[in-house]
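Work package 3, deliverable 3.1, input record:
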Amino acid sequence: MTERYLEDFAVGQRFSTGRHIVDDAQIKAFAAEFDPQPFHVDATAAERSIFRGLAASGWHTAAIAMRLLVHGDLRPAGGIVGLGLEDMQWPRPVRPGDELRVETEILQVRPSASKPSQGLIKVRNTMLNQKDEAVLSQTVNLLVLRRPAKD
Amino acid sequence: MTERYLEDFAVGQRFSTGRHIVDDAQIKAFAAEFDPQPFHVDATAAERSIFRGLAASGWHTAAIAMRLLVHGDLRPAGGIVGLGLEDMQWPRPVRPGDELRVETEILQVRPSASKPSQGLIKVRNTMLNQKDEAVLSQTVNLLVLRRPAKD
């Protein structure tokens, strides 16, 4: 699939990704390195916590979403370059065995006011588990290259 | 240091973390697993990209911030449990060799309307490099336990 320039995006378009199954070992390995709190690394402690069972770090969930997006069908020209998030929520914990995928909707498309070769798209990413329950949602502004002028 | 309950937080308080030096190998390892785009895994490709040199994935930067916060002096009772982000920006790339730390300011403290044992604090986290330049900023809502009633 070829890359999409700013001109190829339109409000309302939807894109999707493949799927990733997260397991107990992945959850504990990520948490040991980046979020070493009991409810992310120890099943027994997790049972007694607010999560009532082992749950992936929200940052692990977000990182898995990024990996799925990189291999998904959005494919903005220049790569997936986030300028910032307008919001992010984790409405439900991610558990060992969950099968995750991301759906993207284009909310806004606009050329850059200052850089003629660039533009911005605002997208809404929703990560769903195998029961189609949302586990992550985020509104992201991405930098996208404009289609080069023809000679 | 003991944990802080909701009643121990007040608007305007500031907290800090230790420091973490991110190197070339860490940047490439995280990106290979979660954000395998050329500007995060290949120095030559990165030179030709919008980043003009190897840069950490924004999700790696956010994950390092989380690790620093877990070991920092914020220490909310019940752990650092994020309900969501109101915004997040990456104003500058993180480069190999950067020394990172996080500063936190308490923006809001309020009891939960529905759960008497819980409350929310809104915090602003700013991650700075060794030149005191911001590389990440985020506004986060955290769940914090209230101090148990005395018998």
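The longest strand of chain A covers residues 99-111.
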